[in-house]
Amino acid sequence: MEVAAPVNRATLQIRNIDPLTSREELVEEIRLQWGIEESGEVEIKSIKAAPWGTQEAVVVLPESGVPSDERERRLRTGLTIASVRQLANVRRCYRCHMLGHVAARCTVACPGRELCRRCGSAEHSMKVLI
Question: Which fold has domain 9-87?
Answer without folding.
Answer: Alpha-Beta Plaits (3.30.70)
